[in-house]
Amino acid sequence: MPTNNSSFFEESTEQSQVKASIVSKYFVAWAKVIISTAKPRNGKIGYVDLFAGKGRYDDGTKSTPLLILEEAIKNPDLRNMIITVFSDSDPANVQSLDNSINTLPNINSLKYKPQLFTEIVNENITKIFSSIQMIPCLTFLDPWGYKGLSTRLINSVIKDWGCDCIIFFNYNRINMGLNNNLVKSHMDALFGENRADMLRNKLSDSISPSDRERIILKTLSDSMKELGGDYVLPFRFRSDRGERISHHLVFVTKHVKGYNIMKEIMANASSSQYQGVASFEYSPSQSLQPYLLAPLSPLNDLIHEIVNTFAGKSLTMIELFDNHNIGTNYTKKNYKQALMQLETECKISANPPSNKRPKETFGDKVKITFPPKRKNN
Questions:
Q1: CB contact at 8 A, 238 and 291
Q2: Helices H, strands E: what count in the chain?
Q3: What is residue 135's DSSP assignment?
Q4: Are residues 251 and 303 in the same domain?
Q5: How many Cα atoms occupy the beta-carbon half-sphere of 34 within 13 Å?
Q6: Per-residue pLDDT tens over the stretch 127-145
Q7: Rounded to whole angstroms, how far apart are CA atoms 10 and 7?
Q8: Which of 324, 127, 142, 164 is nearest to 237 (CA)?
């Protein structure tokens, strides 16, 4: 299977634009956090794309590399600090990308000229990244299929301080490839050989599609966490008709702050929400139930969960959020909605209370006290 599929760039799809928007928005937010610490170190931060493509779709729409460079050009700090590396296995793609980069307004204002390479992503690339101490860097791994994507590669680009990774996880092809001996080596590289074997043993034809997806993504997440990517956040994309899962963007970071920033970005990119809770998926089709894989009443479920989890405890809103939100679809806004409802129903006490706070707000430092669990008679 080729690393890149040229037909992928024939036209920009809604999914492609959402994907590019998520990556570029996180880049801006990540850079804003990293810059202040990176400045007194060596004054450099990086962006790496090892499957960069040709820069534009055939309809002229910009793909991710150009969006990232445009954001860098806008920001005086980024103009002087950002080192960008773009690579692709297809020389024609690299040449096209180079031409597109050179047409960007004010591209010469960047202190460091974008570096372009024609390289096949393989174990040699992994060894290079493994052997160097990286500057703070956001890496985007966007193979059309799965060739070249491995746990070792991901670990090599997140191992150092300030380094995060966003992965294009081609669920449809990987799901089909797991039990295909012809691509066994690629699946073993992606999940780790032992985890890939365990995954194959768990999967069977009798498993529902939603359970199959959950098991595959949990196995990937466990592989990332084993390598130090403590926080893993997937975002689902559905096919044009919305009837099946196409792929995911999977975000990997070592720091909870990056996780929460990306969570807000992905929540806002979701094509649907229920009770104010985002689906963390994008489906071009609105004719099918958009929240198919989510709870029917997610905010009610959150209220029930926190009442039971924190029964008899006192803590601030932000302490509750930090303690509970990892691995859920809930954002800070959802927690505040839930707590305001509980306060209105007199099921918690808050300090300061609602009549001493601005209307319909629940600040991070508001102290919450949950009543103890009732004993069963």
A1: no
A2: 14, 13
A3: P
A4: no
A5: 26
A6: 999 999 999 999 999 887 7
A7: 5
A8: 142
Regarding whether 262 and 133 lie in a shared domain, the answer is yes
- Per the domain annotation, does 292 fall within a domain? no
Residues in the chain: 377
The reply to whether 276 and 315 lie within a common domain is no
3-state secondary structure of 186: helix
Residue 60: pLDDT over 90: no
Q: Can you read off the two tokens belonging to residue 375?
A: 């004993």
Residue 288 has pLDDT above 70, yes or no: no
Q: Are residues 105 and 220 in the same domain?
A: yes
Q: Are residues 110 and 250 in the same domain?
A: yes
DSSP state of 301: H
Alpha-carbon span 18 to 26, nearest angstrom: 12
- Mean pLDDT, range 332-347, rounded to an integer: 97
Residue 231 has pLDDT above 90, yes or no: yes
| Pairing mode of beta strands 231-238, 245-253 | antiparallel
Number of separate domains in the chain: 2
- CA dist 132 and 182 (Å) reads 33
| Residues above pLDDT 70, as percent of the chain | 93
Quick one: pLDDT band at residue 376, thresholds 50, 70, 90?
low
Residue 44 per-residue DSSP state: -
Report the amino acid identity of residue 345.
E
How far apart, in whole angstroms, are the C-alpha atoms of residue 190 and residue 185? 9
Coil, strand or helix at 83: strand
Residues 156 and 67 in one domain: yes
Q: What is the CATH number of the domain that holds 331?
A: 1.10.10
The pTM of this model reads 0.91
The CATH number of the domain where 96 resides is what? 3.40.50.150
Asked whether residue 10 carries a pLDDT value surpassing 90, the answer given is: no
Collapsed DSSP state (helix, strand, coil) of residue 238: strand
- Find the distance separating the first CA and the last CA of the chain, reported in whole Å: 63
pLDDT at 270: 95
Instruction: State mean pLDDT over 275-287.
Output: 84
Residue 75 sits in which domain range?
6-282
